[in-house]
Amino acid sequence: MPWYNGNYPPSYKNQPVKIRNKATEIANELLLNGSGEGVAIATGLKRAREFYKEQEAASSKKKSAHNKRPS
């Protein structure tokens, strides 16, 4: 069953909104590709967390490089 407009798996309830939305997007895509609901829910949440963790790391690197300008 795909999830839309605030209708998301109960395990996503206490997640930050950006992670919940990304996880729902990923889980829906997995469902369309034939994954089972349980696998889609777990994988969606895991990949959403990884996505934002990688974004945060890339952002930190970019800020760090920007702050190390030659004098």
Gist of the model:
By secondary structure, this protein is mainly alpha-helical. It has two helices and no strands.
Task: Provide structural commentary.
This protein has two helices and no strands. By secondary structure, the protein is mainly α. It has one domain (15-67). It is elongated, with a radius of gyration of 16 Å. The model has no long low-confidence stretch (mean pLDDT 88).
Secondary structure layout plus pairing:
Layout: H1 17-32, H2 37-67
Helix pairs in contact: 1-2
Task: Spell out the key features of this protein.
mainly alpha; 71 residues; 66% helix
Globally, the shape reads elongated
User: Secondary-structure element order, as H and E?
Assistant: HH
What's the number of helices?
2
Report the sheet-strand fraction: under 5%
Helix/strand-derived class? mainly alpha
Radius of gyration: 16 Å
Query: What's the rounded overall pLDDT mean?
Result: 88
**Ends apart, CA distance between termini:** 57 Å
**Total number of domains:** 1
Biggest sheet architecture: none
The tally of strands reads 0
Uncertain stretches: none
